[in-house]
Amino acid sequence: MPIKSILTIADNETSTDNEKIAHSFLIYLGTFMSIGGIVWGSISLLSGLIYQALIPFSYALITALNFTYLYYSKNFNIAQNLQVFISLMTPFALQIALGGFIPSGGVVLWSVLAILGGLTFLEKSVTVRWFIAYILLVAVSGLVDQEIVTFGIDIHNVPIEISILFFTLNIILISTVIFGLFYYFVHSKEIVQNKLLSLANTDPLTGLPNRRSFFNQSEMEFLRAKRYLGLFSLIMIDIDWFKKINDTYGHDIGDEVLKKFSELLHEHVREVDVLGRYGGEEFVVLLPNTSISDAQIFVSRIINSTQNIIMYTGKGTLKFTISAGVTQLQDDDENLSEILKRADSALYKAKESGRNQFQEG
């Protein structure tokens, strides 16, 4: 199973973005600690430390069973507590089995990863409790290690070269897992932030930039054109008789009309053009470096293409038209609002003149 698929085994339809990050963060932790456990167990086994090898192998096995349970039950709370618990206790148990901190190469340091797992608890108090448990474990580890040294327990008899190898591997593996965890976490946060930014600037029905986004982009175009003596044209578009469409065919069909027209706009605009849903059934398009005559050619294509749209509904076929107002930047324009007002006035004239046409403002 690909790593991205593994990271989503706890997700369901109701999972929030923050919950999904917590899920993947814990699964990433358990997966890579299991890999470390298999490495540890294999080295211990090859070094003749058979019983000691069972501890890290057991961690990998329990993790696999825990994630299997998580996949089928989606009960993240139970799986989360179990994973953090074994991530905290297993390194401590292995350190004792290997004869203490030095013979084990400081394997108890792996327990610090359990604290990172504790960050997946959305309640801060729970995270704090796991951190306190970690501190107490380290203190107990020091006391137990001192007793092992004091009483000269040497039943494990781990060779010094193995201890050095263990210590080196611990530093490398722990550093790698921590780096990977935070790299993934930061990347996931960026994805969530970008998604929120997109939601804030996108009309959810049509997928077009919303009014706020249009204004932000158009203001920049206005300032650029003013500074460099450039030009642009602006088109205000309204779907004709839209209220009648809603009343006759239903609001769900009205929504489909809005989406269909939005798709048509997408097909005709350039990458440099700025478009958006202005509100209701109104749309607006800003065409940088475009004269009023070229803008008229553009809007004529939009009007003609709209006439060719045929929609099939439960109440028969539906065709609709649009009206538009076209204007361009003028030397005495002081702000974008003045241009929008001219386009809106031109749109009003187009409607008064019979609709399914454009007028210049």
The overall number of domains is 2
Strand content: 5-15%
Helix content: 55-70%
Overall strand count:
7
Provide the low-confidence segments as ranges.
150-156
The overall pLDDT, averaged over residues, is: 85
How many strands, which pairing sense, and closed or not: the largest β-sheet? 5 strands, mixed
Strand arrangement within the widest β-sheet reads 2-3-1-6-7
Distance between the termini: 61 Å
Count of DSSP helices? 12
Class by alpha and beta content: alpha+beta
The SSE order reads HHHHHHHHEHHEEHEEEHE
Radius of gyration from the CA trace?
33 Å
What sort of overall outline do the alpha carbons produce when their principal axes are compared? elongated
Model description:
- The protein has two domains: 3-201, no CATH class; 211-360, 2-Layer Sandwich (Alpha-Beta Plaits).
- It is built from twelve helices and seven strands.
- The protein is an alpha+beta fold and 361 residues long.
- The protein has helices at residues 3-6, 17-46, 50-73, 76-97, 112-118, 124-150, 160-201, 211-227, 242-249, 251-268, 292-307, 336-352, and strands at residues 232-239, 274-279, 282-288, 311-313, 316-318, 322-328, 358-360.
- The protein starts with a helix and ends with a strand.
- The strands form two sheets. The protein has a five-stranded mixed beta sheet, sandwiched between helices.
